[in-house]
Every structure is written in structure tokens, then in C-alpha cells.
Amino acid sequence: MALELVMVGTGSPLPDASRAGPSQLVGVDGRWFLFDAGRGCLMRLAATGVGPAQIESLFLTHLHSDHVTDVNDVITTRWITGFPGSPLPVVGPAGTQRFVEDTLRMLEPDIGWRVAHHDDLVTGPEVPVTETTGVEGEVVLDDGVRIIATPTDHRPVHPTVAYRVEADGCSVVLAGDTVPCGGLDLLCAGADVYVQTVVRDDVIRNIPLRRLRDVLDYHSSVADAARTATRAGVGTLVLNHCVPTPGPDPDGPNGRNEWLAMAAEHFDGEILLPDDLDRISVGT
Questions:
Q1: Of 16, 66, 153, 192, which residue is the catalytic one?
Q2: In CATH terms, is domain 3-281 a member of 3.60.15.10?
Q3: Which of 136, 214, 239, 241 is the most exposed, having the fewest neighbouring CB atoms within 10 Å of its CB?
Q4: Would the pTM count as exceeding 0.85?
């Protein structure tokens, strides 16, 4: 059973022409699970060759706008390109049901126009929601692919969750936005791949904008992520959703190699800082 991670979008809330908003796709033998749906997610999915109709379930780590801006597009496009359309199961923390209901309410005029115009569209999109309970190690799927949810700490954004996908002895953790916490350590224990949102605290601390410096207290720094990876004994650390965006020259100021070197001070395993659409084989 092959487990593959596709970095659909690796960007942050700050728009970047080369990085879509946060979103990852996990594939297991032709089954596809989408984690978060940030800005440009659906366009990047088109480039992967995986359409919205092929997504088995959408998992949300939290409801911050940069992680959910494309949820409405995934819902609508899955519905109108399905013959017939199929329900889109969504899993997320408490508040996800209301978020989905609000999204569908926002889409009501569009849904009504499409139903009125197309005889084969009788009803609107079906989006069943499962909210996580906030219990560490909660199993939200177990049918050959096992997906586990655990609360994280991104306060004042609350609740937030990270997910671990397991199949055939391989595992990947999608942590989302969080500072280090005990639940994350447990979820990451022995994982083959650990994906973590990271910030450069050394850079941001020197920027004279309070609103930007505010991000430091609810995200993991590069060193934080590396220490989590070491404590948990993971195989590969993936730096994602980087703030500020790494510079275009890998060897230049704020370049990719600076980020990797900072992580390597605290973690001696494989470290990656991928681009959009990069594919990572898990457990091979």
C-alpha cells in the first residue's frame, strides 16, 4: 500500500505568486484525502491531476481564513462536475458544522441559479460534517487507512487539531498551525513524515510591525518544529507555510538553505522545505 504526500499549497496568509495557501493531499492506493483548502487550492489540485470529485474527505485543522478560503470552491466544483455529484464529507474541530452551514448559506444564490438552469441538478451540494471531540488520539477513520486527530495549541484560535494518517505501517502527521504541545508530541511519535507550519522568529522579531510580530506567540519557530521532530523520533521534518516566505535564492538572505540549517541545529533527520506540488513518498 503506497502512501504519498502532495504539497498542494505551501504558502501563508501573505499572497505569493508561487505559493498557494495551505493545503496538503495524502494519497493511499488511489484514495485521496485533502487537508485544509487555502487560497488557490483548487487550481493546484488541477495541476496534480486529482479533481475534487476524487477527494474522499476534506479534513480541516482549524478555521483561520487562510486555511479555508477555497472550501466553497471545492464544494461547488465537486457538486457541479459530478455526474451525479457525491457528498463531500468534512472533518474538523468544533465550529466546523457552523462554518459549513454558513458557507452553504453564502452559496445559496449560486446554488439556486444552477438548479434552476440544469434539469439534472435537483438539489444542492451535500456536505456531511463530523466535528472532532477534542480528545487526544481520536480515531476519525479506520478502514484500511487510519486517521487520528489530536488537539493542538493555536490560541486564541480554538479549537485546533492535527491529523496523523497511517497505512501499511507508514505514517504522516499534518500539524497545521500550533506551538509545541504534549498532544502534538504524542501524535508525531515515530512518524515517518511530520509537516509543520513554521515562522522565522529571528527575522520577524526585528520587523517594526506589531501585527506581524503577534504571529510569534501562536506558531512554531523553525527550532520549535525541529525539537518536536527530535523528541518524537520522526524520520522527515517538512517545513511548511513559512513566514516570511523564503527568498528566491536558496543561498541568499532568508533563502531555503538558511531555514534548513536552522532546523538542522536541533534535528539530525531529513529536513525538507518543499514548493507547491512537490510529492513526498512516505515510509520508503
A1: 66
A2: yes
A3: 214
A4: yes
